[in-house]
Every structure is written in structure tokens, then in C-alpha cells.
Amino acid sequence: MKRVLLTFSLIAALLLRVGSAAGQENTPVLEKAVFAGGCFWCMQPPFDHAPGVVSTLVGFAGGREENPTYQQVSAGETTHREAIEVTFDPAKISYDKLLEIFWHNISPIQTDGQFHDFGDQYTTAIFYTTEEQKAAAERSKEQLAQSGKFKKPIATVILPAGKFWPAEEYHQKYYIKNPMAYGMYRFGSGRNGYLKATWGEAH
């Protein structure tokens, strides 16, 4: 009887291990990408709508100061840029595709900000989290520069990702929480008109 119980215990343990391994295989390995494209409100919708993107956070990147606030960053009192952190499943969407979404939602040649938002805090950047992301970003930037689409140099910089600081909760999904204010801002900033004229689309 003891031998039978021991056999059943071994079988149960084996099945549990197999099931656990299968569960781990089905768990996606997620990655993060960080982009600065001017007003972070405007950068969230295109990434949110991309299949394979798991979640997004708007916030601040590239600065030295701890715990920056929106008031500080927007006033240019820190060294941060407004940015978005994208968590994605690389099995469903490639980093190259995320780069394409990024380029198609900014003015890559503007050096003093983005559209009617001026200051270093609104300038564009790609913050890489791995060497593979760095290589892909550099390749993508070079391809854009060689495409002949722009007469001026590509101003977007490529930098190592440091600490990402999420913005206050009322900024998250602002386009959903305040659709009228968001739509008025986006239209008034000139972003929509530029994107449609440059890329034939306006997200």
C-alpha cells in the first residue's frame, strides 16, 4: 500500500512540474521601450492602439533629478523630457514597428521642442534599454535620414534609458479622461496637420 501511495505521489509531482513548465512557456517575455516625442498626452494613443503593446505609462526620462513633477518638468526646471514607457510583447510586435510608430507621430527635424511646445523637455529622443534596441534605433534613424523625406537633419537623439518616472495619475490616458480638451490641444498644437501632411495620417 505504501508503495502504491508513493507511486501516486511521484506521478502527481511529475504532473505538477510538467504543468508548471508548460505555464512558464505560455507566459510572454515582455520588454520595455521608452520614447520622448514632445507632449506625452499625444504619444499615448498610437502606442495604446498597437496590437502587441501590453501597457503604456507617460512620465519623465533622461533627467538627473529624483521624483520630478509635471509642474517642474513642464517649466523646464529639471533635465527630464516628457516621455512614454511602452511595455510590449516582442512575439506580437517588433521593436522596429514601435520605432515606426514613434517616427510617424513626431516631427523628427524640430530642434527646439515639438510643434508649439518649446524647450529641451519637449525635444525628441529614443531611450534604449538594450544594445539591440540601440542598434535598431540607430539603423532606423539612418534609414529615415537617407530616405530623402526631410531636407534638414534628424534631430532626435538616441540615449541610454535611465530611471523612468511615471507622471501623476491625471496625466495617464488623458485622451480618454478628457477627450475634448485633448482634441483641442492636439489640433491647436499643429501636430495633427503636420502628421497628415508628412505621413498622410494623424493619430
Report what the structure shows.
This protein has eight helices and eight strands; from the N terminus they run αβαβαβαβββαββααα. The chain has helices at 2-26, 40-48, 70-74, 95-103, 131-146, 174-177, 179-189, 191-199; strands spanning 31-36, 53-61, 81-88, 113-114, 117-118, 125-128, 157-160, 165-166. The strands form two sheets. The chain has a six-stranded mixed sheet. Strands 4-5 form a two-stranded antiparallel ribbon. Helix 4 (95-103) crosses helix 5 (131-146). The longest helix has 25 residues, at 2-26.
Spell out the blueprint of helices and strands:
Layout: H1 2-26, E1 31-36, H2 40-48, E2 53-61, H3 70-74, E3 81-88, H4 95-103, E4 113-114, E5 117-118, E6 125-128, H5 131-146, E7 157-160, E8 165-166, H6 174-177, H7 179-189, H8 191-199
Parallel strand pairs: 6-7
Antiparallel strand pairs: 1-3, 1-6, 2-3, 2-8, 4-5
Helix pairs in contact: 4-5
State the gist of this model.
By secondary structure, this protein is of the alpha+beta class. The chain contains eight helices and eight strands, in the order H-E-H-E-H-E-H-E-E-E-H-E-E-H-H-H.
Poorly predicted tracts of residues: 1-16, 18-23
* Largest sheet, spatial ordering of strands: 7-6-1-3-2-8
Classified in CATH, the superfamily is Peptide methionine sulphoxide reductase MsrA
**Would you tell me the overall average pLDDT?**
90
Number of strands: 8
Write the CATH fold name: Peptide Methionine Sulfoxide Reductase, Chain A
- Counting helices, strands and paired strands, the structural category is alpha+beta
Proportion of strand residues: 15-25%
Please, how many helices? Answer: 8
